[in-house]
Design brief:
about 120 residues, mainly beta, OB fold (Dihydrolipoamide Acetyltransferase, E2P), 9 strands, elongated
Length: about 120
């Protein structure tokens, strides 16, 4: 695993398989975009314990209750992002929350062409 820096504010580990792909495509030490779906950002304790290398704490800006789930809107550095979490927990704007990325589900994009790196 190798570090991936997000907006100069967070380092997360990238799986060796994804790093191999990035190396083969010539993207090592180049600026690329990380794409991750809201459902692949987790707040469950078991996931957090197993994913310490991708865990971070951030402040909730907006919490939208949608029945069995909530969509939380936050910032990481200057980047806006959303996480889809279980609604059994109550979240409010201003709350701090610990989350972790599922880097197995991460997608990477060329920052110039915006094309997905495969």
């Amino acid at each position: 695993e190798t570090d991936f820096v997000i907006d100069n504010s967070l380092k997360v580990k990238v799986t060796e398989g994804k790093m191999k792909m990035l190396r083969e495509q010539g993207y090592v030490n180049k600026e690329i975009v990380l794409g991750i779906r809201p459902e692949d950002i987790h707040d469950e304790l078991l996931f957090l314990e197993a994913s310490q290398s991708t865990a971070f704490t951030t402040k909730i800006e907006v919490a939208e209750l949608l029945g069995a789930e909530s969509i939380l809107y936050m910032k990481l550095g200057d980047q806006d992002f959303a996480a889809r979490v279980d609604a059994r927990h109550t979240f409010s704007p201003g709350d701090q929350i610990k989350l972790a990325f599922d880097m197995n589900k991460a997608h990477f994009f060329d920052s110039q062409t915006e094309q997905r790196i495969r």
